[in-house]
Structure formats: C-alpha cells, structure tokens
Specification:
Blueprint: E1 2-5, H1 9-23, E2 28-31, H2 39-47, E3 56-59, H3 63-70, E4 74-75, E5 97-109, E6 134-137, H4 142-155, H5 157-169, E7 173-175, H6 178-186, E8 192-196, H7 197-205, E9 210-213, E10 229-237, H8 243-253, H9 256-264, H10 297-302, H11 304-315
Parallel strand pairs: 1-2, 1-3, 6-7, 6-8
Antiparallel strand pairs: 3-10, 4-10, 5-8, 5-9, 5-10
Helix pairs in contact: 4-5, 4-11, 5-11, 6-7
C-alpha cells in the first residue's frame, strides 16, 4: 500500500511501521521535502488523478486535502474511528478527516526579548519595534500557506491583506520552513518567529533560550482572533490500487491510541478526539485552554487562490 505523507518522517514512520506490525499490511511511504511541504505531494496527486498510485494521503495540514476532495481526487469512506470527532474535523461527505493538530505560535528568544515585551497577539508582529527581527516560513508552502488562507477566511480579505502588507513593511525574514524559523530564534538570529508548536518544542527540548506564546489566547471566541490550530488530515484516494488497505490505515490513524502517541511524542500533537486524554509538556499546556481561532476549513480552501496570489506578490520577489 502506498501512502503519500507530508508529515515529518521521524514522527510518521514509527506509526506506519506499527500499523504494518499489527495488520501485516506493508506500507510504502512517499515523503515531501521541507521546502515544499504538502504542496509537492498535492501536485503529484493532481497529476496522477486519472491513474492513481497512492492509496492514502496523510497531509500535515488540511486546506490542500480539502482542495483535492473538491477536485475529485479523494474517495468517500465513512471511518468508524471518526465517530467521536467534532463535525468541523470531518467531511460531511466522508472525503477527508482531521486529527492531531499543531498550533501556530510565536516563538520568542528570551535573551533578546524581555517577558514584558513579548507579543500577546499575532497583530503585535506588525509593530515597528520588531522590524527586521521577525522570521516566517515561505507563505506559499506548508502550514504558513494554510495560515494565510485561514486568515483570509476568518478575518476577511482586507484585514488579512493589510496584516501581510504590514509584515512586509516590517521587513519580516522569509526562510525555508518552520523548523528554520524556530532554529533561527533559538540561535538568536531572530528575536521572534511565527512557527508551529512541534518546531517550537524542538528548540525547548534543545535547551535554547526560548518561550512559546499562543497568540490571542484570551480573545473573545467570536472576535475572529485566537490561536490557529492546524490539524493533520487523511483521505482515501479515489480509484486507488488498494482501497481496503487504505480504509484500514485511516481507521488506525484516527484511533485514540495513535492520537495519544502523537501527543506524547516529541511532536506534541494536540488531540482533536475528545475521548483522548493526555498530559502535555508544560509549554504546550495552554493549548488545552486557549481561545481557538474559529475557521471554516472548507471556506478557507475557497480562499486559497486569493491568499496565494496575494502573498506570492509580496514575498516571492
């Protein structure tokens, strides 16, 4: 069985090997590169639509998975493992499922930024005092691209465009990926960076002088603000070579055991199944209580092209 996997090899491969050990079904994964995370595999799946090679797509974000469903690439499969998940984390047509989220956070170098100066809101990143001191991954790829589409949906086009324009004026450093953002902050190259919780926790575990800020943690739920949670996602590929094996893998990956393993792994994924109870590391514990940004992911997928056109015009020069 073939799995296209945009999630980090070091975290996903042990899970896939456990599936093979339990079921006897061999899994051959195809991984994406850090620089084109999720977008490269997305294009492969589109190119192979008429003659699929892949059985299951395990994406490290959700918007491109929904876009594939809208273009007829994914098949409908009602997984019994998905029953406990809230409805916003699964397709009404059973063409995609979301699980095990990361949060978009601000990572701060504590040697360079005092506690009283730490930004509380994502909008604080546009403050001129952070000019040329902030890093962000390329907004055409991975969770940064997803973040842009979600802001276009949650805030509206004008506010989202104004935010990115202000980041551009503030001379934000654009680097290859979220890991490079986190490492740059940890090494003191940048004062702060917009990144994902798994990469931020990598710097915490490395003993670097960093602190994780969940932006807009106390925002009113209807404000359009809050910390953005971006889940992993799964879909069965239409007319795939091994649909039965693919269904079994989706059931397995949506299980409580896998979400618990991902939460307790160094990736520190945030469980979305309400039946999964875990104790997260101290820097991650705010994730269980912060205001989450309210996003309609399917509507955000519709904003993808507009968001991409805009951020590309600003940052791909």
């Amino acid at each position: 069985m073939i799995v296209y996997c945009a999630w980090d090899r070091e975290f996903s491969l042990p899970i896939l090997k456990s599936f093979t050990k339990e079921t006897g079904i061999e899994v051959i994964p195809k991984f994406d590169t850090e620089a084109t995370k999720s977008v490269g595999l997305f294009q492969d799946l589109l190119n192979e639509k008429l003659l699929p090679r892949c059985d299951v797509y395990w994406n490290n974000e959700i918007i491109n998975t929904i876009r594939l469903a809208e273009q007829g690439v994914t098949a409908s499969y009602q997984s019994p493992s998905a029953a406990p998940y809230p409805k916003q984390y699964k397709s009404a047509a059973h063409k995609w499922y979301a699980f095990a989220a990361r949060a978009r956070v601000i990572l701060v170098n504590t040697d360079l930024v005092s506690r009283t100066d730490r930004p509380d809101s994502i909008l604080d990143l546009t403050n001129p005092k952070w000019k040329a001191k902030l890093a962000m991954a390329k907004p055409q790829f991975g969770t940064t691209a997803t973040h842009a589409a979600c802001l276009f949906q949650a805030w509206g086009k004008d506010k989202a465009e104004r935010f990115f324009e202000q980041l551009h004026v503030n001379a934000v450093h654009i680097v290859k990926g979220n890991k490079q953002v986190a490492e740059g902050v940890g090494n003191g190259v940048y004062h702060l960076g917009l990144t994902d919780t798994d990469d931020a926790m990598g710097e915490v575990r490395a003993g670097k002088p960093v602190a994780i800020v969940f932006p807009d943690a106390d925002a009113p739920p209807e404000s359009g603000m809050g910390a953005l949670f971006i889940p992993n996602s799964l879909s069965l590929i239409r007319s795939s070579p091994n649909p039965k094996g693919g269904q079994k893998l989706i059931d397995y990956l949506l299980s409580q055991d896998v979400e618990k393993r991902l939460a307790e792994s160094p990736a520190c994924q945030i469980p979305l199944n309400p039946n999964v109870k875990v104790v997260l590391p101290e820097p991650m514990r705010p994730a269980l209580s912060v205001t989450q940004m309210k996003v309609d992911f399917e509507s955000a997928a519709e904003k993808w092209n507009a968001a991409q056109e805009f951020v590309t015009s600003l940052f791909a020069k």
